[in-house]
Amino acid sequence: MTSGHIFIATSLDGYIAREDGSIDWLEVPGAELEDHGFAEMMASVDGLIMGRGTYEKVLEFGVWPYEKPVIVLTRSLKAADIPEHIKDKVSFRASDPAELMTDLAREGWIRAYVDGGRVIQSFLSVGLIKDMVLTRVPVLLGGGRPLFGALQGDIRLNHVETQSFPSGLVSSRYQIIEPD
Amino acid sequence: MTSGHIFIATSLDGYIAREDGSIDWLEVPGAELEDHGFAEMMASVDGLIMGRGTYEKVLEFGVWPYEKPVIVLTRSLKAADIPEHIKDKVSFRASDPAELMTDLAREGWIRAYVDGGRVIQSFLSVGLIKDMVLTRVPVLLGGGRPLFGALQGDIRLNHVETQSFPSGLVSSRYQIIEPD
After folding, report:
1. Alpha-carbon B9 to chain mean position
2. Single pTM value for the model
């Protein structure tokens, strides 16, 4: 099965976006000069998996930022909705997470970057995430869209390494420990 | 005014206790052999401030763990309720946070260790916290009592230092930046 990998930034209180979806607070002075490992992570995966919300947010950027194939999990969007300039990079699927990871393995994917709050939560809760890099931005928002959600039980992790940056960002890598 | 200082551990998803108050998940193999800075922090404060919930939890330990004076913020408990063996260490007050910090400064307190979820939230939201040490335990609980709560606006912080430990605990120190 293809393994899932998370690479995401949250506020100190665990939000990935404000209630209205805005991520203005992610812009920390100096952070743009630092290497937080995003390019290295991106080089290590065969493609991305995201939900409709994240996909539509990325579309708003205007310029499509990903070279690698992107799979959008959606039951409502249709292939005909994909803008012409990214038709060869984006595909829509309606599979459930485990089904998708089995299909992707058959298609030759070894590692997938799993992105977006709800998609991350659903992959985590069914054991499809192998490791995560969590970057903490030094701000408390007091509310917003949380990274983590409800689980069937505890998920224990191995801390691999932590790096802090002059901007104040602190980045920790964890491996998920398989339940006994 | 006396300054407030936080020193607390949370799960990776930001909880300080399970829904039922239990903190069994805090016991990480090897962590008991590490110096996470608690003694040093304790030596630097004039006393502790906590809510009724935390006070009652600590009482359950059987042995009272604090040498320094402890102030419990409560409107329901009465001085007569304080057990005999800690009568000289514990006092109850019903003041609001800012009032309390003004009174304590007059009484000679320079730094107070502020503990317990709701008390931390109320002190943070009115700007009475100077710095915090946040220790992340490598586990996702999926639910429980969150450390942070709603705020009037963003609180920005300066990252001072981060240390990680063989047990997997990661401890970061932040100073609260005064709003402009």
Report:
1. 9
2. 0.95
